[in-house]
Amino acid sequence: xxxxxxxxxxxxxxxxxxxxxxxxxxxxxxxxxxxxxxxxxxxxxxxxxxxxxxxxxxxxxxxxxxxxxxxxxxxxxxxxxxxxxxxxxxxxxxxxxxxxxxxxxxxxxxxxxxxxxxxxxxxxxxxxxxxxxxxxxxxxxxxxxxxxxxxxxxxxxxxxxxxxxxxxxxxxxxxxxxxxxxxxxxxxxxxxxxxxxxxxxxxxxxxxxxxxxxxxxxxxxxxxxxxxxxxxxxxxxxxxxxxxxxxxxxxxxxxxxxxxxxxxxxxxxxxxxxxxxxx
Length: 279
Hints:
The protein has helices spanning about 15-20, 25-30, 45-50, 100-120, 140-145, 165-180, 225-250, 270-275, and strands spanning about 1-5, 10-15, 55-65, 70-85, 85-95, 125-130, 135, 185-190, 195-205, 210-220, 260, 265-270. The protein is α+β, with helices and mostly antiparallel strands. A hairpin with a 5-residue loop joins β1 and β2.
């Protein structure tokens, strides 16, 4: 905390916390101006602020201050005009927020990287409020559902695709909020959507008290895998149908027909069974 004179900007008084935190003695402070504890590039802004400062109590915001050691710290400034020793002055309260500012900067960096990760994820990613309204969706969501950036923020799935599919999605959202449990299912998407089949994953997002405040979700494209499964199932069904047709033909033939591998009979039609007296 300190007091400086309006106009000259010289220090008139400082408290012990200021001398301890900034590294100057009281005598050194009283021989300085408030511009001396600012980085040079911040001085013009400071001079303009003090020249146009209105009277009364004022929150000045976050500024950078330079210590005697040359280190620069972040401070939160509040001030009030007063009269000190018969001179117009300003009382300043400075709170060191360097660690807080560094923490916030790291958080912004982490958030930026996380957002970049989510935005470039090769699957649909979104967050909804508990009423099913979108509060975030990534670029893959825009591509798959053919919607613009932020075009459907505040809207629901009913505004994006057909009512039948939307009703199924809304029911899943409702269950996640009601039960507080995640859900995983495979769904076939409407024709106008880029995915034909996808694994849909939904999960609750909670606040610090544990209350469900939002719904998170991923839609992962499984169209190629689904087509492969369907093709395999179709191929197996065709094989079984062909085998049954040949069996019916062999059963009708009056001559004995049998197949053996390594001396062991693997197949014999009824005529062959009668020929060998087998059942």
